[in-house]
Design brief:
3-stranded parallel sheet
Length: 286
Amino acid sequence: MTETKTIDGRALSAQLMEELAGRVAACKEAKVEPCLAVVLVGEDPASQVYVRNKGRRAEKAGIATRDHKLEASTTTAELLELVGRLNADPAVDGILVQLPLPKEIDEQAVLSAIDPDKDVDGFHPTNLGRLMVGLPTFVACTPQGCMRMLEASGVEIEGKRALVVGRSNIVGKPMATLLTAANATVTLAHSRTRELAEEVARADILVAAVGRLECIRGEWIKPGAVVIDVGINRGDDGKLYGDVDFQGAQGRAAAITPVPGGVGQMTTACLMANVVQAAERRAGLG
């Protein structure tokens, strides 16, 4: 049996935040205070927790935040008007519209309205397109965090078989693009994939981002594979679980990220890194 290493997202994110503190200080010396505008629409409890956590991270890094909390009844037009004002505000470096939005709001219209230079989530079609063709851009925070975790763990990506389970524009597709750019041979699987177990069994690197509790069984995993579990699912017992059977992966995977304490920590830290990148550009440091 393989001794399975746990990839500690808390420790890695703390290292990144420490690095960012120095870069924030350099921005402030150049008379630029990094600033993130956060827009929350409605009363979704999970979204409120995420926004609160991002605010704490920003404060820790010395990044100013501007919170805009809107009623669930907010219209697409009203939200677009706010985004337009934030786009025009030179003191705002990054704009984050917390997802999901109420179903009555045209989510894609809102994300597409954000200035690509302030799109610190990396969701704008322009930034996704730049990523696809290998141009400098804001990289979506979760895939960026996953890549940082692989690199920090010393995982050799080049020439390896990588499987990404999940094809969202937020995680799956950009993740596959980043792994391809790192010279992995990438398969993108999803809910319609046939014989998923066989695909998992071939993967040297597995990124699970489908959002279904422990849908990937431990015995499917190739011995010695590295597993990055993006999923965050609440079980009947109230605890958080990933998309991968963590206990079942023990003794098979060479390394795996835990849930909680894994990718989620890096996602928030990478958001802060994108805000600092935008501020450095404004300060003429980037």
